[in-house]
């Protein structure tokens, strides 16, 4: 409407309604004041529980995984919050502390002072594997519950020492197997347990990427002292742990493996670049997989074959994009997602906080981490013997 056109003028009734807001007009045109009145609760709505206490967490190690996934994951947590950072880089720690409103910063030199900090209930170890045992044990001795990144340690002996330290301190110890909290993998576990696939017959797993020695997050993985092992220790563990997640109550009775590292590749002077493995289960099925620092692009695939149907997840264990493909049981193939994979980080820390408060058990305890290290050591023993079968008896 132009300035020379007709203008709209509100009527007296429209003016009164607009001005009164919370008033009403009677039939005679008079304004009557309105009052707020409470209404009865209708039905029986399901309301979320209110946490008794949000536990404070210290994040130890501010590398790319901590910054990109772990720390942002706390935004969705209901039982957990970050109360401290531990880092060898004070400038980075201060920058992140300001960004996330974290008041306490520790260095590795004064790490043991966390024992006197009542704001810290739990410690999340996000350091290279070679440092897991030391800082886990120190945190437990400081009286804190500890969630340690996977793999748990550089050796079963270190893992046993970590478990013993937790028992001595009467604190909870968990391994950050986040897949146990990822909604798509949890959904698949539910379908397996419900018999949707029939009897499990075979599982395959492939996990890997191409390691870049010039990229800091990859560089330490190629060093035996910090990485603990090669591709199997770092990325193949996803295939082993996730496969065994689908076989509750079973036993691993033997392991065999063969190295598949490219000949002469200078990246792998200290650790293996690739390995193929097979686990024989007491139920009679095989879990077969591959692990590699030589794949491109990134591979994360799990396949579950049952007597009636099968499920393929590709990707299976990523931070964001996990997907499910169900085939068989008389239905057309269907690809879908059962939830947002990003929620796994909040679910993991909240699950551990609830366990630390005594409200639940630790879903991925230190004993599970030790189990996986023993299985991987058996795979290495087989590969070192040219693929000979190594007999073991490890309950899932």
From TrEMBL:
Pfam families referenced in this protein's UniProt entry, alphabetically: GFO_IDH_MocA, GFO_IDH_MocA_C3
Keywords carried by this UniProt record: Oxidoreductase
Domain of life: Bacteria
Keyword Disulfide bond: no
Domain called GFO/IDH/MocA-like oxidoreductase: residue spans: 192-311
Sequence ranges assigned to domain Gfo/Idh/MocA-like oxidoreductase N-terminal in this UniProt record: 56-177
InterPro entries linked to this entry: Gfo/Idh/MocA-like_OxRdtase_N (IPR000683), Gfo/Idh/MocA_oxidrdct_glycsds (IPR050463), GFO_IDH_MocA-like_dom (IPR055170), Glc-Fru_OxRdtase_bac (IPR008354), NAD(P)-bd_dom_sf (IPR036291)
MF term (GO), any: nucleotide binding
Xref: PANTHER family: BCDNA.GH03377 (PTHR43818:SF11)
UniProt-recorded name of the protein: Gfo/Idh/MocA family oxidoreductase
Organism: Pontixanthobacter luteolus
């Amino acid at each position: 409407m132009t300035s020379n056109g007709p203008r709209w003028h509100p009527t007296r009734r429209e003016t009164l309604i607009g001005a009164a807001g919370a008033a009403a007009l009677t039939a005679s045109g008079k304004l009557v004041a309105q009052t707020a009145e409470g209404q009865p609760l209708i039905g029986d709505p399901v309301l979320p529980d209110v946490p008794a206490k949000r536990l404070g967490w210290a994040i130890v190690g501010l590398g790319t995984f901590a910054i990109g996934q772990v720390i942002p994951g706390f935004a969705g947590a209901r039982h957990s919050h970050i109360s401290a950072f531990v880092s060898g880089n004070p400038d980075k720690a201060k920058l992140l502390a300001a960004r996330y409103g974290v008041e306490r910063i520790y260095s590795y030199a004064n790490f043991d002072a966390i024992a006197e900090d009542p704001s810290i209930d739990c410690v999340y170890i996000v350091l290279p594997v070679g440092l897991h045992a030391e800082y886990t044990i120190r945190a437990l001795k400081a009286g804190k519950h500890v969630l340690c990144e996977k793999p748990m340690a550089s050796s079963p002996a270190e893992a046993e020492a970590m478990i013993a330290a937790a028992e001595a301190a009467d604190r909870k110890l968990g391994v950050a197997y986040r897949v146990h909290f990822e909604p798509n993998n949890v959904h698949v576990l539910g379908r397996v347990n419900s018999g949707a696939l029939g009897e499990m017959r075979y599982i395959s797993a492939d996990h890997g990427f191409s390691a870049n020695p010039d990229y800091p997050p990859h560089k330490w993985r190629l060093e035996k002292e910090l990485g603990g092992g090669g591709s199997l220790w770092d990325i193949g563990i996803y295939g082993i742990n996730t496969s065994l997640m689908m076989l509750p109550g079973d036993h691993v009775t033997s392991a065999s493996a063969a190295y598949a590292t490219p000949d002469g590749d200078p990246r792998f002077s200290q650790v293996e670049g690739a390995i193929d493995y097979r686990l024989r289960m007491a139920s009679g099925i095989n879990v077969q997989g591959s692990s590699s620092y030589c794949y491109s692009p990134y591979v994360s695939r799990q396949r579950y074959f049952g007597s009636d149907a099968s499920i393929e997840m590709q990707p299976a264990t990523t931070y964001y994009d996990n997907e499910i493909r169900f085939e068989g049981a008389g239905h057309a193939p269907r690809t879908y997602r059962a939830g947002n994979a990003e929620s796994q980080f909040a679910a993991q820390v909240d699950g551990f906080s609830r366990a630390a408060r005594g409200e639940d058990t630790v879903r991925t305890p230190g004993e599970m981490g030790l189990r996986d290290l023993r299985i991987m050591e058996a795979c290495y023993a087989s590969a070192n013997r040219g693929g000979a079968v190594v007999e073991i008896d490890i309950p899932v």
